[in-house]
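Lab meeting minutes (informal)
Scribe: AK
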Amino acid sequence: MQVTVTNEAKEQIHAAAGHEGKLIRINGELVGGCGMNVEYALWWDEAHPADELLQVDSLTMAIDPSTKEYIDSDRLVIDYRPQQGFRLVTPQQILAYGLKLKERWG
């Protein structure tokens, strides 16, 4: 998978201090009852054995096989807009917006 991080998103990521040695997890989770959908999140994390690790400039990102399946594209852009927060965008669609990069359990 090819991940691109826009300059705006990089600025926001680098502004978050105190996360040295951690990577950014791109996570998709199937949620809901009768109407299932995928909820996406970005958080600081550590690598897990099944992850695909992606190096994007000076950033290391992890994505698990289920999330890759939910994204269903070989290209993903992580963008940031002041009114919308982080956005996950494929060539086909905007998967999520309003995301915050946070601690996993925070």
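Next up, CB showed the second protein from the same session:
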Amino acid sequence: MLKYIALLGAASIATMIIPTTPAMADGATVGKDACFSQVPDANGVLAGEFVNGTASVRTNRNWSTATCHFNLSPDQTPAKRTRASGFACTVANDQITFDSVVAASPGGQMSMTCRYKTTP
């Protein structure tokens, strides 16, 4: 019985340390003019090799939104629309935000946005 209680305790500690959303373990990077991300799979998890795209950043007062556009190759294109959100996105000054969304279409287009607080 004590072994069972110890196992339950270890499992509860592990759930506090290990992220519950697989997409959190992956991420994207946005630079001045370019960005890198993975294509979301049917489960909403970023997977596979990184693809590069073009980036633009729009700033309104204290917030910035980085928008990226990607052209996927046929082997990277999903069979149906896929989407992921809440993953780590590295933006200006190595700042990390989780206010992020990426969507890929069967037509080979993918777009991503990462919203972050602009540092003064």
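CB comment: The chain has one domain: 22-117.
No objections, moving on.
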